[in-house]
Write a structure and sequence with these properties.
about 240 residues, alpha/beta, TIM Barrel, 8-stranded parallel β-sheet, 8 strands
């Protein structure tokens, strides 16, 4: 199989896990993924023809960004990072991460990854990263976009929505969540990642419903969509190994 990608194409959403002998998982993690170190990701990128990527810090590693920083250093300018910033993260740590190549902070609004951040926590995080011009990466699911539309509009930074908002495709492409997503793209301040199609699909294995949503978003706002492999798929119930 031959895949032709544009010059300087970028995998805008991928993760690395471990190796845990060097980069252990966070003790308070809510899931334990199989190891998928940078070398494995680079093999995939070589196969697909990618040289640039955005590495997203996983909740499995928590606020310890050692593996992310090491990968950014190895990328020698070809990679950028998205971090997990907490309200008590120091300004010095944010500066260090920025120097390493981090350009975004991810907020989780998905129950399987723990409690959602409070308004006070969100304000503290945005205050920490705003001086560096970072974006906010939002991880929501179900009707989360519809529930949080006003909050998303109020954020003082550019917003990137992960995995097509993880909308419930059983509700169709005219659902409140999809309608809000398209409306947010029209603001000019919000982007969406065409990634995680397997997380949304209700008709596997062809994922035709996820593909239809991706086509709709690309048609609606082609200048506001980015694409990512979501390598590796850590939470897919049909792909992850059984926990011991």
């Amino acid at each position: 199989m031959t895949i032709d990608v544009p010059a300087d194409a970028c995998d805008a959403h991928c993760h690395i896990f471990g190796p845990t002998s060097l980069f252990p998982y966070a003790p308070d993690r809510t899931f334990t993924p199989p190891e998928a170190p940078l070398a494995d990701l680079q093999k995939l990128h070589h196969l697909l023809g990618f040289h640039r990527a955005v590495l997203v810090q996983s909740a499995a590693h928590g606020a310890d960004h050692a593996s992310l920083v090491a990968a950014l250093e190895e990328g020698a300018g070809r990679y950028r990072g998205v971090a997990l910033i907490r309200p008590d993260t120091s300004a010095a740590e944010v500066a260090r991460l920025h120097d390493a190549g981090v350009r975004g902070a991810r907020l989780h609004f998905t129950p399987h990854l723990g409690p959602a951040p409070t308004p006070g926590a969100i304000e503290a995080i945005t205050d920490l990263v705003r001086p560096y011009g970072w974006h906010i990466a939002l991880h929501v699911a179900g009707n989360g976009l519809a529930e949080h539309e006003d909050f998303i509009r109020s954020l003082p930074l550019p917003v990137v929505i992960d995995h097509m908002g993880r909308v419930d495709l059983r509700q169709g492409l005219d659902s409140p969540a999809v309608t809000v997503l398209r409306r947010l793209l029209d603001t000019g301040r919000v982007w969406v990642k065409l990634s995680g199609a397997d997380r949304l699909a209700t008709v596997p294995p062809d994922m035709s419903d996820s593909a239809a949503l991706a086509r709709l978003l690309a048609w609606s706002a082609p200048e506001r969509v980015v694409w990512g492999t979501d390598f590796p798929p850590p939470q897919h119930p049909r792909l992850r190994p059984r926990r011991r």
